[in-house]
Amino acid sequence: LCAIAGIWAQAGSALLQIGPLARGKQSIMHRQDLHNALKMLEEQGLRRRRRTLESPQGAHVLVDGKPYIAFASNDYLGLAGHQELIEATQKAVLEWGVGGGASHLVSGHFGAHERLEAALAGFVGQEDALLFSNGYMANLGVVTALVGRGDAIFADKLNHASLNDACVLSRAEFRRFPHNDMDALARQLETTPAKTKLIVADAVYSMDGDVAPIHELVALADRYDAWLLLDDAHGFGVLGPHGRGTLLAFEVSSPRVIYMATLGKAAGVSGAFVAGSAELIEWLVQRARTYIYTTSQPPMLAATLLKSLELIERDDWRRERLQASISQLKAGLAGLKWRLLPSETAIQPLIIGDNGDALRVTEGLRDLGLWVPAIRPPTVAPGTARLRISVSAAHVPDDIDKLCVALQQLAR
Ligand code: PMP
């Protein structure tokens, strides 16, 4: 316990140990140690700051009292502040109250949860689904319920942090393969002695915006008799027919696939779900600790999400507008000294490289009334600091135009 209880702050390439937490009195964390570690982050350009929104999410937001055109959220369909969802929430709060009151297995499982789970399963073409409070917990729950000591996990290097944390927590052997390298994955699967194998991948990578090689992943899971957990946090609502997600975009169906998606991004609210066979879902009800040992998501949110699902399915024009904005952005930034990564999704990363430069570009944009976050190590690899331009169906052509003109100006 002592060995893992130290807090480590990653500052550039150097790891700075700022003190173990649990080794008796002598080792209690000192305030000065934290102060020094924070200072070091500051000096390395790695200290992150929160901005305070004073309006709903949308293309136009108020931040710290100032209006911005925002390319900073995962509200890809522009639903987070949508009038129909606000009205659905008002109705739902009268029907269900504000809190879940208990965990699902005690007394916190409501009709609204039940109906949402059935609707989600049908929407993504799976037998059953289970709601979690958020995507982080869904990933921790599903991985630790399926594998443990003596099993093996094979994970893409660019997977989301919640998947990586889940893999460590599971105590299974945790092997990572280079991003999208299916040959490396096949070699790892070929040589493992483990009986239960789990492949874990983002369906759409959150900092690069590219889509995983879904057919190849499913073929490898089938060939090596492995589970395949696909995290579709950034594909659900955006990709596939009527936004049914990446699996249906690729017309893939396999009993080995476990589908996970979040409900705080394109769906505009909060929460997550895992979908698969009825047996898988019942196993998670029995064994997923982040499902069992936590208060249920407020049922009013589940009721709101039912409405959100209706809008996702109904409004194909939102996905069409999103695609038009993505094309406009790409055309508008062609020839810029900074390059967009090849991405067909709402996540359009503009690689700047140096941490300080990325910050300066972000600040320059902010001065021009545009909000685009800089993403720096350790979230992305050193030397690949970037602007994560997040496009939404809420943007109009003039918003995209303003961003392109501002970036051209800053590049000069
Ligand atoms: N998976 C991926 C790929 C994500 O990008 C995120 C959120 N950034 C999560 C999981 C976690 O989801 P949530 O925000 O609902 O906890």
From TrEMBL:
Cross-referenced SUPFAM superfamilies: PLP-dependent transferases (SSF53383)
Pathway assignment: Cofactor biosynthesis; biotin biosynthesis
Pfam families: Aminotran_1_2 (PF00155)
Residues that coordinate or bind pyridoxal 5'-phosphate: 135-136, 206, 234, 262
GO molecular function, one term: 8-amino-7-oxononanoate synthase activity
Cofactor requirement: pyridoxal 5'-phosphate
Residue numbers bearing the N6-(pyridoxal phosphate)lysine modification: 265
Top-level taxon: Bacteria
InterPro entries on file: Aminotransferase_I/II_large, AON_synthase_class-II, AONS_Archaea/Proteobacteria, AONS_Proteobacteria, PyrdxlP-dep_Trfase, PyrdxlP-dep_Trfase_major, PyrdxlP-dep_Trfase_small
Catalytic reactions on record: 6-carboxyhexanoyl-[ACP] + L-alanine + H(+) = (8S)-8-amino-7-oxononanoate + holo-[ACP] + CO2
Sorted UniProt keywords: Acyltransferase, Biotin biosynthesis, Pyridoxal phosphate, Transferase
Transmembrane segments: none
EC number: 2.3.1.47
Statement: the UniProt record of this protein carries the keyword Acyltransferase: yes
Stated family: Belongs to the class-II pyridoxal-phosphate-dependent aminotransferase family. BioF subfamily.
Function: Catalyzes the decarboxylative condensation of pimeloyl-[acyl-carrier protein] and L-alanine to produce 8-amino-7-oxononanoate (AON), [acyl-carrier protein], and carbon dioxide.
Complexes and interactors: Homodimer.
Name of this protein: 8-amino-7-oxononanoate synthase
